Amino acid sequence: MTDRQQQPAELPVASRVSRRGFLAAGGVAVAGASTWASAAEASTQASHADPLNGEMRVADIVVVGSGAAATSAAITAAIEGAHVIQLEKAPITGGTSAKSGGGIWIPNNFWLKENGIDDPRTPFLAYCAQYSFPHLFDAASPTFGLDRNSFELIAAFYDNASPMLDWLTKNGALKMGKGIGLPDFYDYGVLDGWNRVPRGRGLFPRRDDGQTGFGAELMRRMTERAAALGVETLTEHEVLGLQADASGAVRGVDVRSPGGTMRFGARRGVIFGTGGFTYNRALLNLHMKEPVFGGCGVPTNTGDFVGMAGAVGAKFGNMASAWRSQIVLEEALQYVTVPSPMWIPPGDSMIMVNRHGHRFVNEKRNYHDRSRAQLAYDANVPEFPNQIAFVIYDQRNAELYAGSHPFPNDPTGSDYVIKAEDWPSLVAAIAARLKELGSATGGISLAPDFGQVLETTVSRFNGFAQTGLDSDFGRGSFPYDIETAGSYAARQPVARWKDTVGPNPALYPIAGEGPYYAIIVGPGTLDTNGGPVIDKHARVLRHDGTPIDGLYGAGNCIASPSHDAYYAAGVTLGLGLTFGFIAARHAMGRG
Ligand SMILES: Cc1cc2nc3c(=O)[nH]c(=O)nc-3n(C[C@H](O)[C@H](O)[C@H](O)COP(=O)(O)OP(=O)(O)OC[C@H]3O[C@@H](n4cnc5c(N)ncnc54)[C@H](O)[C@@H]3O)c2cc1C
C-alpha cells in the first residue's frame, strides 16, 4: 500500500495535522540520525533543523521496518485498537524474514501441548542461560548467574512466545504447521542436559493448501493480515531520525519518502524492527573483531537504528555478534547479498580444512557455531588460522550431492568450484585462486606444507570413516549431525554410488584417486544481532538502565536476548516475533 492509498474504512483515519499543531501536541525535538548526541543535545539540534518539506502524519504507533519483528508489532498494536503506520525503506516489504526459511522456534508451543510434551520453564531458561553466558552460568542462582535484565529477557521470551503464537494464530496472522521434529542445535548430553525438549519447538508456516511454507509464506500471511487490520504500510519510506521531547521521550520519526522529507508522530510509541547492520561496512569494521565477508539478508539492513538510538542515549550490546553462517567466499565478493549460506557442507566423503590443511570443526555441526570455530585465534603466530576454509570432496560426493548448495548441479557448474585431477594439482589451483582473491582477504595464502598436511588429514579422516568413529571431532555422533543432513542436502539417486554408505552415515572415505574438488568458504551472517539493549517490555534502555519512553525495538536491530548463542533453527524469528508482540502490547498499555 502506498501513502496515497485509502485506509480501510473501519479504522480510525490517521490524523493529518499541521506542523504547528503537531509540535504543540508533542513538544517535538529532532534527534539526528547520524550523531551520538544525548537527548538534550538532540533537542538543541532540533531548534536549528527544519527537514520538513512533505506532509506530517500522526498515528498511535509508528512501526519501522516490515520484517517479522516489525510486522508482529504492527499487527499486535492494530488488534489492540491502535492506528498503526508502518514505514519500510525498501520498495518491497518483508525484509530478510521473507527470504528466510520461515521456521520459528517457540518454547512450550501448541504442538508440544497437543502431543503431551512438557516443556517446563526452569530447564528451558537454564539451557538458554548456559548457552548464552557460559562464563556466568550458575545453576544454583535464581537468575542462573546472569544480570537481572539478561535473565528477564530470556524469561520474557519463554513467557510470551507461546501466547504470542496462539494469539496471532487466533487472529489470522500466523498459521504454523506441526513441529518438524529435527533436533535443536544442542540436545541431550551437552550443556548439562538442560535442553529437555530438543525436538518440537521448531514450527514452519502452513500454506492454505496444507503444504509447508517458508519465509515468503510467513510474511505473505502477516502482511496481508496487517493490511486487513488497517495497518498503513508505506514502502520507500526510510526513517532517518527520531523526534524526542524535552524529557527525552521519543514522540515520532523523520522520514525520507518519494514525496519529500516527512515527519510521523507517534502517540503511544515508535517500534523499530529494522534488522541488523551487515550491509554497513563501517559498523562491521568498527565492531567485529574478525572478518565478516558478507551476508544473506536484505541489503537495506544498514544498521540505521544504531545512529538513531545512540542519539537519544541508548545503551548498546552484542555489537560484535551475529546470527552466523559460512558463506562461499566468491559469492560474497560477487554479490551484494549472498543467495544462500552454506547451512551444512553436503555429503560424507567431504571434509573442511583451514589454511594449514587441518580439520578444525565437526563439519556437520550447526551453521552458527561452526562459523564461530572460524573465528578462533592462534596467539603463537598470531593469526585466525580458520578464517578462510576449504570444503574438500571427491567425485562421488560431487555427484551424490549435486544441486545441494554450494555444490552445483553439474559438478563444475559454478566458477567458485575448483577442480583438479590429483592432490598436488588441487593444492596448486587453490593457491592460485587465493592469490587472485588476495585483495579481499588480506592476502591469505596456503601454509607452505598445506599439501602434505592435507594428504595426512585425508588419510586420518578415511580411517575414521572405516571405523565410523571420528575421534577428532565426533562427526556423526550427535543426532543433529545425522538427522538434519537430509534437510540441507539431498542425496541423488546416482546408480554407481548407490550402495556406498559407511557405518557412520556422516563419514565416507575420500577416494584414493581424483578428480578432487574444493570450495573456499568464509564467515558470514544471516544478519548481525547487536544494537540497543532492551528490557523485558522491549523498551530501549539508557546507560543507567532506565527506559527511553516511547522507544521500542525487536528482532535483529537490538542486542539479542540470546547474546552470542543460537538456541536452535527458528530462534531468530521466534525472538523477533515475540519481542515485537511484547513491544506493541506494552506501548498499548497491555503488558
Ligand atoms: C536464507 C535465510 C534463511 C533463514 N531462515 C531462517 C529460519 O528459518 N528461521 C529463523 O528464525 N531465521 C532464519 N533466518 C534469519 C532471519 O531471516 C532473520 O534473523 C530475521 O528475518 C530478522 O527479522 P527482522 O524482523 O529483525 O528483520 P528483517 O526481516 O531483516 O526486516 C528489517 C526491515 O527493516 C527495513 N529497514 C531497515 N532500515 C530501515 C529504515 N531506516 N527505515 C525503514 N525501514 C528500514 C529493511 O529494509 C527490512 O525490510 C534466515 C536468514 C536467511 C538469510
Helix fraction bin: 25-40%
CATH superfamily of the domain at 325-525: Succinate dehydrogenase/fumarate reductase flavoprotein, catalytic domain
CATH class (first level) name of the domain at 325-525: Alpha Beta
Number of helices: 19
Largest sheet: 9 strands, mixed
Note the beta-strand portion. Answer: 15-25%
Average pLDDT across residues?
90
CATH architecture descriptor text of the domain at 325-525: Alpha-Beta Complex
Overall spatial form: globular
Give start-end ranges of low-pLDDT stretches: 1-52
Tell how many strands the DSSP assignment holds. Answer: 19
Spatial extent as radius of gyration:
25 Å
Derived structural class = alpha+beta
Bound molecules: flavin-adenine dinucleotide
CATH topology of the domain at 325-525: Flavocytochrome C3, Chain A, domain 1
State the end-to-end CA separation.
30 Å
